[in-house]
Amino acid sequence: MLRTVKPKNARSKRALEARQPKEIEDPRTAIFVKGTHTGEVLNNVMKELMALKRPDAIAFNKKNEIRPFDAASTSIQSLEFWSAKNDASMFIIGQTTKKRPHGLTFVRMFDSRVLDMTEIGVESWKGMADYKTPKSTPGHKPLMHFASELFDTHPRFIQLKSMLIDLFNGEEIESICLPGIEHVISVSCAPTPAALNTATAGTISTDDTSNLPKVHLRTYTIKLLASGTRIPRVELTPMGPSLDFVLRRHQAADPEMLKEAMKRPKLKKTDVEKGLGKKKKNMEVDEMGDLRGRVHIAKQDLGKLQTRKMKGLKTRFDEEDADSEDGGRPRKKRREE
To answer: Where do transmembrane segments lie in this chain (predicted)?
Structure first.
């Protein structure tokens, strides 16, 4: 572990404060690590993924004996050391073996500790050089699209979706400029087998990957064309890379650590009043930004209200009704003085 150093000047103090937890975190820095055996396929795939992640990507060009799923090795300590030293919160480790060829392991960190891991096996790929089309600008935040119900129902695909969003998610922005969206990352699955329908999904073990469908990752550039209305017509052009992979081993997050990682800071009173915090019952913010509320009261029986005994509530109509009930005799008018 890295020893705690007390800052000696303002520059080192700002560097340490930049690593402290923030209400809005900085973009995740990903480190691409090569194992003892990678091969040409994994080397090219890691280069393509790093091109999409730039500038928040660090490459370890030397080979490292790293096995994150092996509890007996010192790989976890190495990952924690690299995470603390480089202020990185995600690792992409490439390792190919005879039993698991072309394997990529995504490791997510929290507070310089391993949170969860998932391994995929690359079966086919095409790089950016294979598509003679325009490319997106590095550093732009992509639009991500997940086209399968498994990304919302199956635990393995939910974890994969969360990993990919954390990997490619850039800086947090308050508003979206339509011309600023240059590329789309689309993740889809092969047809869902009958064994993974919603009725029986809970009975299948998450460690069984034989029935899991193949995952397809595609990247497109966005081209906005005139449509005659305010909303432009959108065309997608393949940009690359394109990956086809399957899910393999995984390690779920520890419940206590996950609860700590998902903890949010308390919101300010002004944010709660603007409707940015927890939604309160019968309160909403309209399109103009005004806070509106609705008050519910019990149902009132207006027929039981005692109004005739109050002179202030009497009307001329009520007096005429009272005269008709007395037999039609006219009521004496009060002499005006």
So the answer is: none
DSSP string, 214-271: PEEEEEEEEEEE--SSSSPEEEEEE-S-EEEEEEEEEEPPPHHHHHHHT--PPPPHHH
Give a yes or no: residue 315 inside a domain. Answer: no
Cα 104 from Cα 118, distance rounded (Å): 8
d(CA 7, CA 256): 31
pLDDT tens digits, one per residue of 233-252: 999 999 989 999 999 999 99
DSSP 24: S
User: Domain span at residue 49?
Assistant: 26-194+210-249
Question: 94 - beta bridge partners?
Answer: 34, 104
The CATH number covering residue 101 comes to 3.40.50.10480
pLDDT at position 270, please? Answer: 61
The number of folded domains in the chain is 1
Whether 279 is in a domain gets the answer: no
Residue 221: inside a domain:
yes
d(CA 152, CA 196): 12
Question: Is residue 288 in a domain?
Answer: no
Neighbours of 207 (CB within 10 A): 8
Cα–Cα distance list, 80 to 25, 57, 111, 134, 294 (Å): 19, 17, 9, 38, 51
DSSP string, 293-317: E----PPP-GGG---TT-GGG--HH
